[in-house]
Amino acid sequence: MAKYKKRADGRYCTSIMLNIDGEKKKKYVYGKTIKDVDDKIAELRAQNNKGELTNGKSITVEEWAKTWLEVYKRPSVSYNTFKGYRIAAEDHVIPNLGKYQLSALRPNQLQGLLNKLCDNNKVPIARKVKIVLDGMIKTAIREKYIKDNIADGLKLAPHKPKEKRALTDDEIKAIFAADLSDKERAF
After folding, report:
1. What are the φ and ψ backbone dihedral angles of 29, each rounded to 5 degrees?
2. pLDDT for 46-79, tens place per residue?
3. Whole-model pTM?
4. Across the chain, which distance is largest between two alpha carbons, in Å?
5. Integer CA distances (angstroms), 54 to 9, 57, 119, 125, 142, in order
6. Which of 4, 114, 162, 176 would you label with 132, given CA atoms 20 to 30 Å apart?
7. Rounded distance between C-alpha atoms, residue 95 and residue 118, angstroms
8. Cα–Cα dist 139/59, whole Å
């Protein structure tokens, strides 16, 4: 049976002990009525039993990207794959999202980064960045830094290759008229 205390502002308050990530944590619960407090306690306990409550560790995207690369990717992927991940993280993820707290990151921020890359006709780079973001988020969920997969549902704009055209007759004549070696003339 929880002890309820009525505060000066009229709300009721009590505390409960929860086991979050192997550590006992005291959580304070507030409500306008005792029933509100009891409902919130029941909700917290249900979330705790499902493992949805995290330990509140706050880490920036930059710190997590560096940790993810060094701890989780360097030992498990080839050198060239790691190099591609590192370039995507250091050149695009960290400069654009590094200052944000990992737990405060939202899907629209990730999608905005991918859209910006696609708008600049950097779709292959956007694909690599999407792979890095997806891996970082999935590992962060497994390590209980965040609850939801905010990288789920990210979309890339379709790749629009440059339009190719055939040479005009004047361009062909200009090539043959140019003083080119046989090797340079091969087109």
Report:
1. -125, 135
2. 877 776 665 555 688 999 999 999 999 999 999 9
3. 0.61
4. 96
5. 29, 8, 36, 33, 11
6. 162
7. 17
8. 14
Q: Which two tokens stand for residue 178?
A: 């140019």
Determine the residue type at 56.
Answer: G
Candidates 70, 55, 69; CA nearest to 21 is: 55
* Residue 124 dihedral angles phi and psi, to the nearest 5°: -60, -35
Report the SS3 class of residue 58.
Answer: coil
**Cα 125 to Cα 131: distance, rounded to the nearest angstrom:** 10
- Whole-Å CA distances, 178 to 5, 81, 90, 166, 167: 93, 43, 45, 19, 15
- Which alpha helices (DSSP H) does the chain contain, by range? 34-50, 61-67, 79-88, 94-97, 107-119, 123-142, 169-177, 182-185
| Backbone Cα Rg of the chain | 27
Secondary structure class of 112 (helix, strand, coil) = helix
CA distance 33 to 12: 6
